[in-house]
# Entry
Amino acid sequence: MNHKKTIPVIFFLLMLLFLGTSASYGQKENPGRDRLSANLTAEQKALLEANRSSITETREAFKASLTADQLRMLKDNSLSIDQKREGLKSSLNAEQKQLLNQNRQLRMMQRQQFRSSLTYQQKQMIRRAYIYRTNNTSAHPGMRRLPKWRRR
# Structure
């Protein structure tokens, strides 16, 4: 047996196994969202689920209304995201613009309806979770970190 070749191969396989398990172990769905949803009532959870399903339906309806040229523009990797957005905006017809406006109005109405169903304690919990998330991640580099005495 040639030990000079088998030892590096075994070491490499062990490293792959270690890295693969440690990467999957650290990924959780979203513990903050789970903790917040645990404090919602059944009606609020049903309202959120209905909102999510209506948003996906309206997105699918908009995608179905896109023409072949518009789809080709969105799939073109030579364009930046801003160029794609501007190109798509300029190529929308009246029906598509109306559909986008209706989707926007629906989301605003659903958001307001959900906000009005929250109690004061639930609003405070959501605010605390948002402050914690923005102060403990680098996702918002422009936001100022709260002083220690303000963090809870």
Observations:
- The mean pLDDT is 79.
- Residues 77 and 84 are 9 Å apart (CA to CA).
- Helices lie at 3-25, 31-38, 42-65, 68-75, 81-91, 94-117, 120-135.
